[in-house]
Every structure is written in C-alpha cells, then in structure tokens.
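REQUEST FORM: STRUCTURE PREDICTION
Request ID: SP-0412
Submitted by: Lab K.M.
Chain count: 1
Length (residues): 302
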Amino acid sequence: MRVVSLIASATEIVYALDLGHTLVARSHECDHPPSVLGLPAVTAPKFPTDGTSYEIDQRVKAILAEGLSVYRVDPVALAAARPEVVLTQVQCEVCAVSLRDVEEALVEIAGGRPRLVALEPMRLDDVWRDMRLVADALDVPARGVALVNALQARLTAICARAAGLARPRVATVEWIEPLMAGGNWMPELVALAGGENLFGAVGQHSEVLSWERFAASDPDVICVLPCGWGVAKARTELAALERQPGWSQLRAVAAGRVFLLDGNRYFNRPGPRLVESVEILAELLHPDRFHFGHEGDGWERR
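STATUS: Completed
RESULT:
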C-alpha cells in the first residue's frame, strides 16, 4: 500500500500503527519520527512563516480575506507519489491543507483515484475515532483498537493518580497576538492532568481573549504553547505578554508558575503524543506527584 499523509498527526498515527514503511510522501509539517523527513513534501505554506505572532496572524488573515487557501498542494509531486490512500483533515484550514485543495490536486492523478481519508479531530473522542479510521483505511483495524486502548490506559492511570489533588486554575495560551486560549481537546488534557481549565471549550476552536478578561481570571498556572511553535520560539514571543499591564502582579507570575511548552510537537497535534502532553501538564501542575522527564525538552520554566 502507498500512503500520503498531508497532516503531521496522521503521519504519527501511521508510525504508531507500525506502518511507517507504507508512507511515500508527506506534508511540509510532517517531521516525526525524523526518518519521515526523507520523504518528498507535497505541500507548502503560501506565506512566510517567520516573524512575530502578530505578523503571522496578519498574513494568514489577509489570505483568508481573499477567499484563498493558506497552503498549497503540489499536484505534480502528489501524482508522482502514486498514492493509494491520502490522509488529510477538515478540522482547521489554518493548521493544514484544506480538503478542497486536496480534492483539486487529486484531479490531476491519472488512473485510479486514491482513497481520501479526512480526519476531523475536535475533541479527544474524535482523536481516538480518527486513529481507528486510519487503521481501517490501512487494513489493520485490530492495530487501531489496540493503539487506542493502550493510549487511553496511560491517560486513565495519570487521571487516577491526580484524583483528590488540589486542582490549580490553568490558562493555556495557544496564540499571543491576538491572545487566544487553547480549545478543542486542550481543556480535556488539563482536566486529565489534574487542573481546572479557565478558558476554551471542549470541541470548540481556540477562543480569542481580551487581556482584561485574562488578567481578571488571575490564573494559578499559565502555560504558553503557541500553535506550531516549539519552546524556543515561545520564549522569544513571551515579551508580548510581559508588556501587558498587570502582568507581574498575576498570581502565576509571582509564584513562578509560568511555563513554556512545545505546542508544535505535543499539544497542537491530535495524535499519539497527546498522552505525552498530559504527562507534561501533570509535571507542571503537580510536581510532587509526577515526574516523566519532559522538562528541558517538552517544557521549560519561564
């Protein structure tokens, strides 16, 4: 079987199913495991991805305002991969190529049309469903069930250990300018790790916040995990938050409980590493009870 994955989380699911050898092409964002980088990338962004969070936000909004897609699919490269299955998504037009872009590119593939599998993860239950969907599409349904069961068991164990502990009030910052709180599965991850999520709703896209509302909530813990960025980039952007009035007086800041998390590798990818994301949160929220060894890699202190 020849598989093309156009979303990083789907690529990680394929590898978790022990089917990495079936991949023949990837998206420009697929980077884990490192061996996948040897495959040709068949997508690319239509805008420069460097700059501040504000600059990137303005570029994306300008493209969307014209009714255009944020990413492009190379139909020639996709055709050259001769895929039998193409994995894509319909959850977020800003996060990865759109279903429309993929369908248009597939028109140029001669011969049999590949099977198109579109994932739509809005909450944790959807992530488990999508893992089973990928497994079914790749003719290994039993592996999909086993993978989901194993990941859920790890989460259940963390949740059980956190039961009965004090639940700090947590703000997850998924974008800085404009200020946005993590939505979709993020509130669920916080709850599983033993925290009380302040902003963002389960199954809903990230919520735009005013600084006044954020400051008034006075979180016990602030987790900065910008979508698509690692810890180093999050640290460079933190200054935009630190300039806000009253920042230094916030409970989390005064207590030294502001953390920089790797949103790109963990929290923003609805795949197997959401379990590691909960481990990271558990370490931050309850350092006396949890130690998974993610500090310095998946997260750092401010």
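NOTES: The chain has twelve helices and 13 strands.
Reviewed by: T.R.
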